[in-house]
Amino acid sequence: MEMNIALLPGDGIGPEVIEQAVKVVKAVGKKFGHTITFKEAIVGAAAIDATGNPYPDETHEVCLQADAVLFGAIGDPKYDNDPKAKVRPEQGLLAMRKKLGLFSNVRPTFTFPSLIHKSPLKKERIEGTDLVFLRELTGGIYFGEPRGRNEQGTKAFDTNVYTKEEITRLARMGFEFAQKRRKLLTCVDKANVLATSRLWRETVQELEPEYPDVKVEYEFVDAVAMRLVQWPKAYDVLITENLFGDILTDEASVISGSMGLMPSASLGTDVKLFEPIHGSYPQAAGKDIANPLATVLSAAMMFEYAFDLKDEAQAITDVVNRSLAEGVVTEDIAEESKPSKTSEVGDWLAEQIL
Amino acid sequence: MEMNIALLPGDGIGPEVIEQAVKVVKAVGKKFGHTITFKEAIVGAAAIDATGNPYPDETHEVCLQADAVLFGAIGDPKYDNDPKAKVRPEQGLLAMRKKLGLFSNVRPTFTFPSLIHKSPLKKERIEGTDLVFLRELTGGIYFGEPRGRNEQGTKAFDTNVYTKEEITRLARMGFEFAQKRRKLLTCVDKANVLATSRLWRETVQELEPEYPDVKVEYEFVDAVAMRLVQWPKAYDVLITENLFGDILTDEASVISGSMGLMPSASLGTDVKLFEPIHGSYPQAAGKDIANPLATVLSAAMMFEYAFDLKDEAQAITDVVNRSLAEGVVTEDIAEESKPSKTSEVGDWLAEQIL
Ligand SMILES: CC(C)[C@H](C(=O)O)[C@@H](O)C(=O)O
Ligand SMILES: CC(C)[C@H](C(=O)O)[C@@H](O)C(=O)O
Which residues does the annotation say bind substrate (chains A, B) (predicted)? Predict the structure, then answer.
């Protein structure tokens, strides 16, 4: 198969972890006989520094022409504590999601047998956890207008807004995921307070009869924030709005014991994007110590979701499991073994695949 | 001292748990020589059923004339899955908070030595946790206008809005709490996306020089959702907007191992209100099995925050600790011991105080 992959390393540790994913993807291409070409583009703080725009048009073109996008991370602390900064790296991420129509962020949460003891949660609570969040990614309070300040600057406002259409397409994807899994769908909202949440609940209720094999539960976001830690095994597929998804998926990532392992896929109308859920981790940038596994596993999701190549995806998951079992891992998760460098983990994984 | 206390039992298990708190408060009054009078009023689903209004004017009057309000719980499932219900019990709660000016919800999170093994989190992660959230309670997306639907009903919107004034009064309270504690204040926001959050961050930054002994940290809400489970001991005082506070304080309640134990105080301009953080738990209502300890501990907070009576508060905390140590507890936390009924726990606590 021919595959054109856009690489958007972004900021902080982004470039380092993307480099390792590329090694692994190349190895998979060689082994399974695919022709893979890569094209790199800038985004985030890196793009602001170079062009003033965190998601330049040229980068958008590169994404549009690709079959899939591999994305690293975005964010730079120099912008975080300056509430008045005019352009922020995150705007690039949001513009990219919106312009590429990536309305669904798929974030699985699962545990690794060899890492389960690293979780702050007790083993019996989390062993066997297998849930997936579908977070709406191009709507809600992230994009709603009006947003900003009054003239004197003493009052600020944001607008949360959802249309039935936006909810329906995300919800349908949720029902379809559930049909292929354990057939339980949880709609997470705050319908006891928010008008948007009541539209979510109503819309999902209306779709229920079309998917009679799926059991639907409705839960308030505060209750889910609690139950997710108490008993994550209770969940299968969860659908939710952009902001709740942001908070809950980060919370859920703790279950696995390491953020450095959790991949994600952003799906929508055409192009598909794959990225680790961790951030740009600027303190570690350039030190060759960042954990590349989340990005490597995002590449596995790419083979499965963008190219429908399950064997290739499985080959990557297998070597990642082996690296965990044999202790070829970076310092954040190394224990008995001597920690490996970011680049060493990438090299090892690529070799193991070939 | 003379104390007028308004009792708002509300829905579900509310009446049962309030009854036990009243027994304990009466015992404290007797022991310490206070004259305590109670006046009961309706709120929530109970009030809708009786008057059509979830926070009737008469109830508001009772609260205004009281020195403190003891509140049970609100909510009835018959309203939750009806997105088109015109009046909902929660509106009573929100109206009450707003009309009484209760802008700060104080929610401590701590662990009980005898219960620590019940937490889904590992002991070494949580032992010694002692943090307190100050959740803004009368602003944000809970109250912002406009909110509702477009004419066709296909689009819904909510408005998150904060003024510098609202943020300042909550933040000042946060700084003052921190000064009396470990001197660390964490401002939780989503300043990389929301205009309201940027005003929060800016306002808190401007206040910093007035409290040079307090160290201030700024963290994104998604990061806090994660770190709260990973390492809760890192936090001391956290301040945040209404919605983030709703989600994070429920999440934090898991640390202690039981929601049935966590009290809260709502402070503002005049009247002060005290309530357990758990909900109305309708499945248990009327069965004499609900855990009254969170409400009893809320009464302890009442003596401390509303009347500045620390010994009285301590007397209650002491007997609660004794009930835990001796296993005089309801079925949700009973282990070796035979579970006690709700009413038996209340009787035992009151006796122990006298
Ligand atoms: C960087 C930030 C804007 C972003 C978000 O809130 O969506 C991040 O937290 C994420 O989850 O991808
Ligand atoms: C019942 C609901 C409206 C309420 C809230 O969201 O504030 C509750 O969850 C709480 O935290 O007191």
Answer: 97, 107, 135, 222
